[in-house]
Specification:
Order of helices and strands: HHHHHHHHHHHHH
Largest sheet: none
Number of helices: 13
Distance between the termini: 22 Å
Number of domains: 1
């Protein structure tokens, strides 16, 4: 049964990107992130109560809380960059760059935390880096409403950078708190940050103007994220992490498949080879 939950985690994680893309065709990506985070926060606290870690809230020390907040701010920045990149770029180009955050995390952990890089991790870093490069083709992207989408790559790399910082800061902050409770606290910070961004950028009125169809897709993307978390947790309960983690990371295959079916985004031979290298690198890093 745990194998089905692991596959479910990868499936819902991959579908999240597709649903989000459908929800930000006309809706501002910052507004969409703020709305979506409400749904994700609900699921995050469901996880907390499922594992019974809510009682640890009173025992969290200031240092741990500080790093959790910093990690939440990094997560918020990553999500804002990621959904902006999805709005103005192709999914098949944005997702590989975002997945490269794994490489950045390993490098930052080596530089800042002194964690050694093993042989297979080194091989994985090279393969994922090469695969990401191959999947990024230099051709004109069309942004929303037919505008230029040249900024998608910058946003995508920003997403990867902040995602890696999330992992580093979260690793420090998670030492004194149960992981699901830490994730819920971080998500709460993301929610506050996202809505502050909505207000500061003067997009509050846009919240009421979100098309009903896109609102449904935005909420569904949040539900998909929550479902992925729940499946991943159940899979880890009964299955080996060495098997569950690689299956979850292969959500990129689900995203690419659905991007073809929904948006008709095709892979060239070059990007197909890049995808194969990313998959091989992900598996190598998790041996």
């Amino acid at each position: 049964m745990w194998l089905l939950f692991a596959a479910g985690s990868a499936f819902f994680a991959g579908v999240t990107d597709i649903l989000a893309k459908c929800g930000i065709r006309r809706t501002d990506s910052t507004v969409a992130t703020a709305i979506r985070t409400i749904v994700v926060l609900i699921f995050a606290w469901i996880m907390v109560f499922l594992v019974g870690s809510q009682e640890q809230i009173q025992t969290i020390d200031r240092t741990t809380l500080l790093f959790l907040i910093l990690s939440g701010l990094a997560t918020g920045a990553s999500w804002l960059c990621y959904f902006r990149a999805l709005q103005i770029g192709d999914i098949n180009k944005v997702v590989p760059i975002d997945k490269s955050s794994t490489v950045l995390t390993i490098l930052l952990a080596f530089l800042l935390l002194g964690e050694p890089i093993g042989l297979f991790q080194g091989i994985g870093v090279v393969l994922i880096g090469a695969g990401t490069f191959l999947m990024i083709e230099k051709r004109q992207q069309k942004g929303p409403r037919g505008g230029s989408g040249k900024g998608w790559m910058l946003c995508a790399f920003g997403s990867a950078m902040f995602a890696s910082l999330t992992a580093i800061l979260g690793k420090v902050g998670i030492q004194g708190v149960e992981s699901n409770l830490g994730a819920a606290i971080r998500t709460g910070v993301v929610l506050v940050m996202a809505w502050v961004m909505v207000l500061v950028t003067g997009k509050a009125k846009a919240v009421r103007q979100v098309p009903r169809r896109e609102l449904i897709f935005i909420c569904l993307s949040g539900i998909a994220t929550g479902a992925s978390w729940l499946c991943y947790y159940h899979a880890l309960q009964d299955g080996p992490a060495s098997v569950v983690a690689p299956i979850d990371k292969l959500s990129i295959l689900v995203t690419v498949a659905f991007s073809y079916l929904v948006f008709h985004e095709r892979l060239t031979r070059r990007s197909g080879l890049g995808l194969a290298l990313i998959v091989a690198g992900t598996l190598a890093m998790l041996i």
